[in-house]
Design a protein that fits this description.
Length: 680
């Protein structure tokens, strides 16, 4: 009985295998018959990805005819042909569109990881994808790719397919095809490429940004040597040729006139990367996919920001700049500058670099302080202080230029003067962990150590994070998503992505947000107490409307971030190698650029003020005592408080000091109290 059961199972197994085999054969025959009936696919690829500003004006074309020069295979250097085949598809001339061994190996890994990360695409498959399909990683796309691969192999010669591939593949920096790449990188034709040059270019398509020698020479050279080694092992070059090419010193073309005409090149790179993330595609697929990408960029603001940076920084200076302007109500990026010269370096210092923000980090600290009992008139002494930490260590911060008030100062003064002693005392009071948690509420995602010095901006963060955080103050405490794309339309005219304005999510307390914002306007006063210069006093005369902001500086970084209700802008100045900023003029660049940009970008906007929320009251306060100011006080400043927390005691320190008649002094005080009671 058991033997019969085994025989039956064996027969069922053979029948199943046979059915699968017949199904496979039938499917194979069907695909090839259908491919034959449909005929050769069109090889032309006219898909261009176009970028638009927020007003609908074209700001960039990622796949234009001027970036593609078609050349015949016979007019290309043999070296570039051999290098490409060696690294991308060594069995290209042997298979019929599919490398079965590589496919099964990649398929096994995909099944093990339940993903589509492993690639085994032949040159024909890559060409089919570039011509007809998106680069999204789905099984349906891979099936379509296989179908087009069969049709290409059925109706076109290997040389024709290879020629098409080399003329359409993306080499980065706006160059499609080997001829454009040869001109871009080496200022020569593809026919004149040396083995060293050809092997360098052959390595780029795998990751145009990652392997471009203009972006990372070390990584590109390692990839080049890998290709040369593959060519040598496959017998395409001799050992002598391998060594000479590996040791050759390559000289790259210094500039590209076409790229100089691009509007916001750093912004455009950011847009393409964001689009790739949104559509779950590769960057190369976005660039050559025929998309229409509508962005948040305001062209006039972009050109203005670039102009202000170029105007302010001396041409001979080696300092770099990063700048970002954002609509604080939507999170839309309206202008971005990632460096002073895109042709020399496409590294985006606004989103890719992380630097210490210095005192520009303090607003996050003082929001935490307001949540933990602080008020604008909370007073702490400003004098040289050595802090004894819980772990037994000591910490002795200092103020800029060694300046201390040497007396008690208010929170309002501490923020305007950027007093470090006040900040560290506050951080130790609220707790470094609380500061980290608060910074997270403001959208700071970078690693933040729970240490006293975090109050002084000792952690590395990006400009994008900082401007996003300040924008939340500008919009009253609502969460925003910093973004550069409003809509994406594919080559068929279908909208495949549209940015949704999120429902307003109140993250920060509206009253405390306004109180902090008003405190941050204090950095633009001329002085405090009639003699203490505030950090923004050097640009105060350039400003003709209300702004809130905070500057920050370290030995190697200079920041200025500030906002109106309509625009939040951050400027960073520093050296890529973190060397110390020695020149005073270079320290001032950030504030000067920020002030000029903000003023000119607001010329056609209404003169807005920050709206006072309900439950908040403003009272004149004497900054010396932190009490309500009287007509006898030398100076006073309106400070805002949550109702019920405002000071009720009046300053008596500045009354006319008639020591012989205390009754008069008492009478004066009674009169002043009555006067101010009228305004309560």
């Amino acid at each position: 009985m058991a033997k019969k059961r085994k025989i039956r199972i064996h027969k069922l197994f053979l029948i199943s295998i046979g059915s699968l085999f017949l199904t496979g054969i039938s499917l194979f025959i069907f695909v090839y018959l259908l491919s034959f009936v449909l005929g050769p696919p069109e090889l032309a690829n006219d898909q261009n990805t176009i970028l638009y500003s927020n007003s609908g004006e074209i700001i960039g074309e990622q796949h234009g005819g001027e970036n593609r020069e078609w050349v015949n295979l016979k007019d290309m250097s043999e070296a570039v042909i051999q290098a490409t085949v060696a690294i991308e598809d060594r069995n290209f001339y042997e298979h019929h569109g599919f490398d079965i061994k590589r496919i099964f190996g990649a398929l096994l890994k995909d099944i093990q990881t339940w993903s589509l990360k492993e690639g085994a695409s032949t040159l024909t498959q890559q060409y089919a994808r570039n011509l007809y399909l998106s680069h999204e990683k789905t099984w349906l796309r891979k099936m379509k790719e296989a179908f087009y691969t069969v049709r290409l192999e059925m109706f076109y010669s290997k040389d024709k397919i290879l020629e098409g591939y080399l003329n359409t593949i993306y080499y980065g920096h706006g160059a499609y095809g080997i001829e454009s790449a040869s001109n871009l990188f080496f200022d020569t034709s593809s026919k004149q490429l040396t083995l060293a040059q050809a092997s360098m270019l052959a390595g780029i398509p795998k990751g145009p940004t990652y392997y471009s020698p203009l972006n990372d020479s070390k990584r590109a050279e390692d990839r080049q040597k890998q290709i040369l080694q593959a060519m040598y092992q496959q017998g395409k070059i001799t050992e002598m040729e391998y060594k000479q090419a590996a040791q050759a010193k390559l000289v790259y073309k210094k500039s590209n006139a076409q790229e100089k005409e691009r509007v916001g090149p750093y912004f455009q790179d950011f847009v393409i990367k964001e689009a790739a993330d949104l559509l779950n595609m590769e960057v190369e697929g976005i660039r050559s996919g025929g998309y229409q990408i509508h962005t948040t960029l305001q062209k006039d603001h972009q050109l203005l920001l670039e102009e202000q940076i170029n105007h302010a920084i001396t041409p001979t200076s080696e300092v770099q700049a990063g700048a970002l302007a954002m609509n604080p109500n939507t999170g839309g990026i309206i202008a971005m500058v990632g460096g002073r010269n895109y042709q020399e370096s496409s590294f985006n210092r606004t989103v890719q670099a992380k630097r210490q923000p210095g005192s520009s980090f303090k607003p996050f600290l003082y929001y935490a302080a307001l949540e933990n009992g602080y008020k604008p008139n909370t007073m702490l002494p400003s004098k040289p202080t050595t802090f004894q930490l819980a772990n037994g260590e000591t910490y002795q911060p200092s103020n800029y230029n060694g300046y201390y008030a040497n007396k008690e100062i208010t929170l309002a003064q501490a923020l305007a003067l950027s007093d470090n002693i006040y900040a560290v005392k506050t951080n130790l009071f609220v707790g470094p962990k609380t500061l980290v948690e608060t910074a997270r509420e403001f959208g700071i995602t970078s690693k933040l150590p729970e240490v006293p010095s975090l109050a002084l901006g000792s952690a590395a963060v990006s400009m994008k994070e900082m401007v996003t955080g300040y924008s939340m103050l500008a919009n009253g405490g609502y969460k925003i998503d910093a973004h550069s794309i409003s809509k994406i339309i594919d080559h068929n005219g279908k909208t495949v992505y549209k940015h949704k304005s999120e429902k307003k999510n109140q993250i920060l307390d509206q009253r405390k947000t306004f109180i902090l914002t008003h405190l941050m306007t204090g950095m633009f006063d001329h002085e405090l107490d009639g003699y203490m210069p505030v950090t923004g006093s050097t640009i105060t005369d350039q400003l003709n409307r209300h702004y809130a902001g905070k500057s920050g500086s370290t030995n190697s970084d200079s920041w200025m971030i500030g906002f109106s209700p309509s625009i939040a802008t951050g400027i960073w100045i520093g050296y890529d190698d973190n060397r110390k900023i020695e020149k005073v003029a270079e320290e001032r660049y950030a504030k000067e650029i920020w002030a000029d940009f903000m003023q000119k970008s607001h010329e056609n906007l209404p003169n807005e003020t920050f709206s006072v929320p309900s439950g908040v009251i403003g009272v004149p306060v004497d900054p010396t005592t932190g009490k309500r100011a009287t007509p006898y006080c030398n100076t006073s400043r309106v400070m805002f408080f949550e109702k019920g927390t405002e000071p009720h005691e009046y300053c008596t320190e500045h009354f006319h000091h008639n020591q012989e008649d205390k009754d008069v002094k008492r009478e004066d005080k009674s009169i002043v109290e009555k006067i101010f009671d009228l305004f309560d």
